[in-house]
Amino acid sequence: MMHLPSRPSTWVPLLALLLLAGVPFIALATGQTFYIGFFARIIIYAIAACALNIALGYGGLVSFGHSLFLGLGAYAVGLASFHGVGSGWVHLALCLAACATVALVTGAISLRTRGIAFIMITLAFAQMGYFLFVSLKNYGGDDGLPIALGSRFGPVDLSSPASVYAVAFIVLVLSIWWLARLRVAPFGMVIRGARQNARRVSAAGIPVVRYQLLAYVMSGMLCGVAGLLLANLNAFASPGTLAWSVSGELIVIVVIGGLGTVFGPLMGALVFLGLEEVLKGFTEHWMVVFGPLIVLVALLGKRGIVGLLERLDAHVPKVAGPSASFEHAGTAANTLSAAEGSSS
After folding, report:
1. What is the pLDDT of residues 24-62, one digit of tens each?
2. Cα–Cα distance, 126 to 133 (Å, whole number)
3. Which secondary structure element, helix H or strand E, spans residue 210, and what is its range?
4. I need a surface site. Which of 18, 107, 151, 230 has the fewest CB within 10 A?
């Protein structure tokens, strides 16, 4: 008989995913269709946070410029739609090509620096992208660009929030699965090792910068896919997507959820955007309350929400049986993560 996972750090995120899968059905049944768009936004930000987690959580690359890739993904849809192209495959190809090229160039330059300099140069590239799109008056300039043609992938048309939700949810599940696989793959071990001690990894004959650059490019491409979905959800591409504050929000989401953890981006997006929406309903000065809450979460657990859930794991009795091997992998990963977290 198959046992369900007993560890909170495993079943709580899985339960959250299960609830997210049911949101459209509940919203349609109750007539509260607003929640489809709201939770679709949470899912899209969770995908973008998953992308940032590759560079920041796994690789230790504090990028303050991932809003650039989010914006490129959005404008890949907006510009193609402006010229009458509604094919989702063309939008996706433009998005991936633009994000890969820009990430390769900016990453190669940024990785020549470390620490504060890396943060500032990635921020500078994002601001360059922001002012570039603001200056494109033919494409709306700072007013943004309405999208008349949503991305069409054969029979799947992303012109409605429900279809965007379904596609975004599938992309999120695949992203989390990929993050889990990448984490324990040799590639993931190299970039995580480089985060701890790049010189020691280089001494082993491994070209660290190449691995970090590849991680940065993969991170940028996945973030671009999130931007493509966001543009379809809003039917609008705005230079505001490229603003530095969006990069800051993504960093906060990853830190709140759990830096370098598999489920951290999902939990961080749920808490960050959920709290924001709830507090907005009480007061227009919601950031006065929101800021201290973020600080409190950060102080309670260095590894964010996932770290707090891992503390609860210690109070759960061991389960013997077929699930033991399933949870053994999670335990090993958690132990390694805790060791990394304490040493960083």
Report:
1. 999 888 888 889 999 999 999 999 999 999 998 888 888
2. 11
3. helix 208-234
4. 18
Torsion angle of C-alpha atoms 46, 250, 252, 274, degrees rounded to 10? -40
- Helix (H) / strand (E) element for 304: namely helix 304-313
Nearest Cα residue to 118 out of 201, 55, 50: 55
> In degrees rounded to 5, what are phi and psi of residue 64?
-105, 25
Cα–Cα dist 211/200, whole Å = 14
Reported as a single tens digit per residue, the pLDDT across 199-236 is 888 888 888 899 999 999 999 999 999 999 999 999 99
Of the candidates 321, 336, 340, the one whose C-alpha atom is nearest the C-alpha of residue 5 is 321
Token pair of 186, please?
Answer: 């040799």
The predicted pLDDT at position 211 comes to 93
* pLDDT for the residue 317: 66
User: What is the 8-class DSSP label of residue 148?
Assistant: S
pLDDT at 233: 93
Q: Do 195 and 58 contact (CB within 8 A), yes or no?
A: yes
Give the DSSP letter string of 3-71: PPP--HHHHHHHHHHHHHHHHHHHHHHHT-THHHHHHHHHHHHHHHHHHHHIIIIIT----S-THHHHH
- Rounded to 5°, the CA angle 255-256-258 comes to 65
Question: Contact 112/182 with Cβ under 8 angstroms?
Answer: no
pLDDT of residue 344: 44
| 310 contacts: CB under 8 Å, gap ≥ 6 | 9, 303, 334, 337, 338
CB 219 within 8 A of CB 55: yes
Low-confidence ranges of the chain (pLDDT < 70): 1-6, 300-302, 317-344
